[in-house]
Specification:
The protein is mainly alpha-helical. It has 13 helices and four strands. Among the domains are: 112 residues, Cytochrome c-like domain (Cytochrome Bc1 Complex, Chain D, domain 2, Orthogonal Bundle), CATH 1.10.760; 130 residues, Cytochrome c-like domain (Cytochrome Bc1 Complex, Chain D, domain 2, Orthogonal Bundle). Strand 3 and strand 4 form a beta hairpin. The longest helix is centred in the N-terminal third of the chain and has 47 residues. 32% of the residues are buried.
């Protein structure tokens, strides 16, 4: 009888031991399941910030000191400061003053300069103004002439803002130029600011595909720019909260962003909203394809027959002929661009 009791007691202790082990394992699994999303989130955040580089990776830390705009509050001349502040306001809210319902003039399409030159032209690789004052006046192949800042600004008004020239002697042009001069005042004359213009983007081995680009646009762009690409006006209809990417209120086909390489670089390193150049959200293919889709849509036309007087200096992705080569307009617009680039290099080599 005592032996049976001892055996039963032993079995109970053994069973309790197994149960305790199982409960411990279940507890560990529950904690792991709860903690996993937080671990993944923190890992992703660190990777995005460039804080973690996988072992054996060939990624190199970017040690470039990028240009940053000076602080307007550093201006001690009260009159100049006021003019520069007005210039910044005109760049940031162009339409409020010069758009279809502008309080000063009605002369542009409703877009703002900073729709293309992000944060009033101060974002690294966001088409900023860092090098404008240091490099202008300069020769531009598009016009075949030396251009001033005034000419460059008015090009934007006529093309990107699909409007009219601004009076170069008026307060608005003077203010815009004063702002551009101030923004680039920390860049030595003749030098290019680090992070100005667009960040390089590799050419695809194929043509950019508008069909694939539409899928990208639907998934990642239309929530702001709307399914019809028409953007979103603010409540009082003085400017766009999100700019139109095509249609009557968008930039015309003479604008710099109508070149697919410019548009692809711009969206790769700046879009969707909140993207920075060190952590793009679009793949190279997505950037090229969504650029192709946007640029395949209808938009205003501008007649500029004097552009690119020297055909040999036309960029390979300029979408309108005539060209110095035998490739089609379609290939010049969408690619593939590597054959065009090779042809351009061969011609350049034979002329040396």
């Amino acid at each position: 009888m005592q032996n049976n009791e001892r055996d039963t007691d032993k079995e109970i202790r053994s069973l309790l031991s197994v149960i305790n082990i199982l409960l411990l394992v279940i507890g560990v699994l529950v904690v792991a399941v709860i903690a996993m999303p937080f671990i993944v989130y923190k890992s992703n955040q660190a990777e995005k910030a460039g804080q973690q580089i996988p072992a054996g990776s060939d990624l190199k830390k970017d040690t470039t000191t990028y240009w940053a705009a000076p602080d307007i509050n550093s201006i001690t001349d009260i009159k100049l400061k006021k003019q520069v502040e007005y210039g910044k306001e005109l760049v940031a809210h162009t339409s409020k003053y010069l758009g279809p319902n502008g309080s000063v003039l009605k002369m542009s399409n409703g877009m703002n300069c900073q729709n293309c030159h992000l944060q009033a032209g101060t974002v690294v690789y966001g088409n900023n103004y860092g090098s404008v004052a240091s490099l202008y006046p300069k020769f531009r192949a598009r016009s075949g002439a030396v251009e001033t800042i005034y000419k460059r600004v008015n090009d934007c008004f006529e093309r990107s803002l699909n409007g009219k020239e601004l009076d170069t002697t008026g307060n608005e042009m003077k203010a815009i130029k004063a702002y551009i001069d101030f923004v680039g005042s920390n860049v030595p004359k003749g030098k290019k600011a680090a992070g100005s213009g667009f960040k390089d983007l590799a050419y695809l081995d194929r043509a950019a595909d508008p069909g694939k680009g539409q899928l990208v646009f639907t998934a990642k762009c239309q929530s702001c720019h709307q399914p019809n690409g028409g953007g979103v006006l603010n409540i009082d209809k003085t400017e766009f909260t999100y700019p139109p990417l095509w249609g009557n209120s968008s930039f015309n086909d003479g604008a710099g962003l109508y070149r697919i390489s410019n548009f692809a670089k711009y969206v790769k390193y700046n879009m969707p909203q909140g993207t920075i150049h060190t952590s793009p959200q679009l793949s190279d293919e997505e950037a090229w394809d969504v650029a192709a889709f946007v640029l395949s849509q209808q938009r205003p036309h501008i007649d500029v027959p004097k552009d690119w007087p020297d055909r040999s200096m036309k960029p390979i992705d300029h979408p309108f002929g005539p060209y110095a080569d035998a490739f089609s307009e379609k290939q010049h617009k969408y690619g593939p661009f590597k054959p065009l680039l090779e042809e351009q290099k061969k011609k350049a080599a034979t002329t040396k």
